[in-house]
Amino acid sequence: MIALALKAKPASVRKELTRLQKSTQPKIVKEHYGFYRASTDLGIMRRLLLGKPILFHGIRLDGYCRIEKVKLLIEAHSECKKRWRKHEWYDLSFEGRNVSVMLVDSGYTQVVLNASTNPLDYLGWARFRSFLEGLLPGYIGDFYLKDVDIHCDMREFQLQELKGMRLKVFDNAWFHLYQKTEDILRLEISMVPKNLKFFEACLVVQELTAIPTRETYQPIPEVKEDYSYG
User: What is the count of structural domains for the chain?
Assistant: First the structure.
């Protein structure tokens, strides 16, 4: 496909791809035979996206799950189990972070990720979603995002940066801004979204991580008037 697009010889394209892959700082990565992708550079992604790295350090999901097989799956992955009255708590681990799962006999389920000491970036969010889909197959997409905590470090801050925040879409939201180091400000935000399903939140994160293509900025084609006489 690359050779056809460049109108070049396939052998020349393969040779060039091999050279790029084996360079000191490769810009491409070979997934498997015949398939390549651009190498992921978190620094470049963050500058292209928001300019400021936003990290997730707390996520809470609420929903219902009444399948006994799912309960057995959670027990198989749990490191600790406790029961009090009609509540069962399970402690799991996701990439060194604590994940607490509470199950109630009625089917109510709560999942809490504590990543305060090791926050998630955008790519980590995608891996966490895959982890949950394996833990609660067929159910996690309908869970509601009840609490999300994020923080951001910056060297300067203007109030205009919060103008796009619409508080009416949250049941509760608070902000904490303080001096972390001599030249770094830390902004912490805790939000309780209104009726936001987990799959919808994943779509939002996916949009944030999608790097715009040239086609995104293509101007609207001009409509040429027809002066011909039929």
Answer: 2
Tell me, yes or no, whether 216 lies in a domain: no
Report the chain's mean pLDDT, rounded to a whole number.
77
CA dihedral 142, 147, 152, 156 (to 10 degrees): 120
Quote the pLDDT of residue 60. 93
Q: What is the pTM of this model?
A: 0.62
**Full residue range of the structural domain in which residue 150 is found:** 51-211
**Each residue's pLDDT tens digit, 66-110:** 777 777 778 887 878 888 888 889 999 999 899 999 988 888 899
Q: Is pLDDT at 173 greater than 80 in this prediction?
A: no
Establish if 144 belongs to a structural domain.
yes
Which of 200, 211, 206 shows the shortest CA–CA distance to 169?
A: 200
